[in-house]
């Protein structure tokens, strides 16, 4: 009899714990009692993922993924690793997925599967506010900055010989901007929505250069390893659609960019 009571009690405790999880939801664990997925992301890629003034890790990607997890009933374990490391973590199976403003490209599709596109973007060049560099023609004999493994780096590499500059690599966007700001390198290559957002900050003294190469325009997608975690990919797509239908997607974009 005592044993039966203990089992009943244990059952009730499990039930109430699950109920608590459903009501709450922290950054590490969103979506209550469902499956848990390890999601890798970048470190400093505002407005998509960044640490805000309250020392909270926030952004469009973070809010989107958490809202999708809630909608689809799964948990997210976040890993803020840097872009190149986040993609590598998916490739090695250390992460189930990556959301980090990752551009959907044919080359990456050889290794990864992408969700439906969730944000449009393209690569731009940025220079110091008081620089007189107006475009690629002015980069001859100079050194520019790029972020390892990104579309910005791919753009810089593709045009390097044509315009005669050298490339210095960084793992993090904010450190790359600082290098241009201090005058070590004369320009950097970055996604336009990210560069535009960062140029408004008082501590970033860079401006976007008009000269633009159309080939590096690709929207962002959520990433899993090719042929793996297909159920997660389907949940992402289904969740994204329901956030778009409910207006929550527009709300998240507006929260971080002031537009939608
Ligand atoms: N969109 C770029 C890419 O996929 C940069 C992503 C990033 O730096 N987080 O290469």
Write a structural description:
The protein has 260 residues and is an alpha/beta fold. The chain has 2 domains: 2-118 and 221-257, 3-Layer(aba) Sandwich (D-Maltodextrin-Binding Protein, domain 2); 122-217, 3-Layer(aba) Sandwich (D-Maltodextrin-Binding Protein, domain 2). It has helices spanning 2-23, 60-72, 83-91, 151-163, 173-181, 192-199, 230-246, 248-257, and strands spanning 36-41, 50-51, 57-58, 75-80, 97-98, 112-114, 123-128, 143-147, 166-170, 187-191, 206-209, 223-225. The strands form 5 sheets. Strands 4-1-5 form a 3-stranded parallel β-sheet. A 3-stranded antiparallel β-sheet has the order 10-7-11.
- Structure annotation, total helices: 8
Strand content: 15-25%
Please state the second-level CATH architecture of the largest domain. 3-Layer(aba) Sandwich
Helix content: 25-40%
CATH homologous superfamily annotation of the largest domain: Periplasmic binding protein-like II
Contiguous uncertain segments of 5+ residues = 1-28
Find the structural class using helix and strand composition. Answer: alpha/beta
Query: What about the largest sheet?
Result: 3 strands, parallel
> How many domains?
2
Ligands bound to this protein structure:
glutamine
């Amino acid at each position: 009899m005592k044993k039966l009571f203990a089992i009943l009690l244990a059952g009730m405790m499990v039930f109430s714990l699950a109920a608590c999880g459903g009501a709450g939801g922290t950054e590490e664990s969103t979506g209550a009692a469902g499956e848990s997925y390890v999601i890798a992301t970048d470190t400093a890629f505002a407005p998509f993922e960044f640490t805000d003034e309250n020392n909270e890790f926030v952004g469009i990607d973070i809010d989107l993924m958490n809202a999708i997890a809630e909608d689809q009933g799964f948990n997210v374990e976040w890993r803020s690793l840097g872009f190149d490391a986040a993609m590598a973590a998916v490739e090695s199976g250390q992460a189930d997925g990556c959301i980090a403003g990752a551009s959907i490209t044919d080359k990456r599709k050889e290794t990864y599967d992408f969700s439906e596109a969730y944000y449009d973007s393209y690569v731009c060049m940025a220079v110091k506010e008081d620089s007189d560099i107006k475009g690629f023609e002015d980069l001859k004999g100079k050194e520019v900055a790029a972020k390892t493994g990104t579309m910005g780096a791919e753009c810089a590499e593709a045009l390097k010989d044509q315009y005669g500059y050298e490339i210095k690599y960084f793992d993090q966007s904010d450190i790359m901007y600082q290098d241009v700001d201090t005058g070590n390198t004369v320009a950097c290559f970055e996604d336009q929505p990210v560069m535009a957002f960062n140029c408004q900050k008082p501590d970033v003294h860079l401006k976007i250069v008009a000269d633009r190469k159309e080939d590096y325009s690709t929207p962002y997608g959520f990433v899993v390893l090719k042929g793996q975690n297909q159920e997660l990919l389907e949940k992402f797509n289904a969740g994204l659609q329901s956030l778009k239908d409910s207006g929550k997607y527009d709300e998240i974009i507006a929260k971080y960019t002031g537009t939608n």
